[in-house]
Amino acid sequence: MRAKVQEMTRSALAAAFRWHASWPAWLLGSLISVYAVGLVLKGEADSAVFDNVFATLTRWLPAIICLLALLKVDRPRAEAVLVTIGITVNAIADSYFYFVVHNTAVRPFPTAADAGYLVFYTLMLCALGVLVHRQLQGLSRSVLLDSAVGASGTATILVVILTRITSSATAGPETLASTVITAYSVLDILLAATLAGLATSRGLFIGRRWILLVAGLAFFTSADLAFFLSDSGAISLSRAPLEVGWAGGLALIALWVFASSGPESSRGRKRVPGSALLVPGIATIAGLAVLIAGTRTHVSTLAVVMAALTMTLATAPLAFRQRVLSHQARTDQLTGLPNRRALYAEASPRLACAEQTGTALLLMDLDRFKEVNDSLGHDVGDRLLIQVGLRLTRQLGPGDLLARLGGDEFAVLLAKADPHDAIVKAIVLRAAIAETFTLEGIALHTNVSIGIACYPEQGTDFNGLLRKADMAMYKAKTSRVGYHVYTNADDSDFGTRLRTLHELRVALVSDQLVLHYQPKLDLTTGEVHNVEALVRWNHPCRGLLQPGEFLPLVEEAGLMQEMTRILLAQALDQAAVWMLREIRLTISVNLSPSSLLDAALPERIAAMLDARGLPASALILEITEEYLMQDYALARASLTRLRDIGVRISIDDFGTGYSSLAYLRDLPIDELKLDRSFLTPMQDDPRAAALVASTIDLAHSLDLRMVAEGVETADALAELSLYGCDQAQGYFISRPVPAAELVTWLTTRGASFLAEEGAHATN
Q1: If we measure between CA atoms, which residue out of 603, 513, 599, 625 comes closest to residue 564?
Q2: Which residue range(s) make up the domain with 291?
């Protein structure tokens, strides 16, 4: 019952806070404004309303807001609990001071209120300690040293100031009063030094919440220091600004507690800017000034010690800066692995030692890494590279050297290996990378292509070895065998590949890629309502190239997404032209797996359709069955969004994979395309024919359309019609042809098409 009441209370508070999240700021701001105006107007005169009632309200309202904020969440943070207790204790102490001590003719010192104030300071320091421990983990030593210099320098300045102020008060035999004054001084120094250290931490993430806390404590500490200076006669200051400073500081701290009980957008977080380096600079100058002053006048021993500590911390980085810079120059910043410079530096002596035993260089490149960056963002790509580095490291021996050369390229220089050992190691590394990566809740599948060059058989120096491993790696990537050991024939293949890659990039921007269209024959009516768009490369020197001659290079170079966008635009442009001529043809376009990783793809396709005035039914997207099994959850989400805008989905090469048929039930699919490998044995093998017939029946039972591709004989077409196949395409019906030839083909063979008035399409 108690838990239920607490839950109802939290729900009610959360609902109230959602109604207007800024009400604490308005309430505290209004109260402090009225309090400040009242203090100014009353001057030095006593006023029970402002000296007692309003003063107490400015202490208790922040405490109440903090308590409400803690009730709002199930598990409040430790720092928020410490701050809330501290503000509450301070409110109790101030209530005692304003209503008891303040009204006495002779104010005693110390009182019970001072005990509460000291507890408040202690709890604030503990809360900052929790935050510092959480926020500063993982920062570099240089940043931590800057923070230490800022804190030490600030403490040095305050020690000089406060020791002069408190020396007279603490002179003579030690009493409770002198002890309390010293405690105030120490806590003020510690709090100010901690705030200076936080302000110097360039790696610290700071947002609205941190600014509120730091500003609040700074206001409160400044008011305390001003009170010390005023009370000692060093400056002349009225009570009003001190009271407003204390009240304002508590209000800002309470707002931080309230804000920290809700979610914070990552957009509101930012690192401390580089200008924070000004703090350690000033602190260093202050420490030096105190040391110089100590040679000419009396400075307390503690101040001299603090100044010496500041100078030591400030000069400490010089002792190991060269070592740090050298390490950073040879280390990859992202993965922490040795970089290209380190590999070059260590390769030559390693090769010299391996002249008798032999060694091998393995050059690795992630497959389709560019697609991950383009689709999921560079931050996900960076985390993938880090995990790849960790997996590779776990598979290597103690004498092997792993380095990241840049981008998605890694290199391994084995300690001792012959060609057979290098191949075995390549297989092991590929198997490690082939395991699923989970990033941002997405299961990613990738692999590496590995080029192998052996020493001394295939190179007598590291530069030559690296060049030949690079050739072998690209051979492995284009042949899709996973790894390849360098041979002399790779030299000519490598030059051809580089030339072709350059020509392909030119082709993408100069309209050399063209679409040919292959009709899909309706086996019930004999009409053609659908065509498939297939890419060709109209090479200026080599003529018309088939997809198999350049698509592997497109995938290897990470250009598949760009090419898909270009071809999709061409296909929709052609569909718009046909629609103006009252030719109603739905165009099927093959979609690469990387394109489906693009979160903005559905909206982009919808915009392309709208720009051309095309209905979504004018487009069918064909995807491979293999992709569905690579990341089922992501595939389902992407296809569902595409299907929601009205685009139809087709599964290409159906039946060639080793996947579960469960996706036919769960995914938004409209048609299946039976692979040509099922059709060839169909006429001579009854079991093959039965398999085709049962597959067609399966599709129809799931309300899916079945399309057979690769039909090359009249008998195959007749059997498909007999089994109830919906559509067929293949060389027997028509080869893929340019758009103009397709219209001629449709007209001459007398096929009819449905226009808006039901007329036949004409040329």
Answers
A1: 513
A2: 141-202+275-324
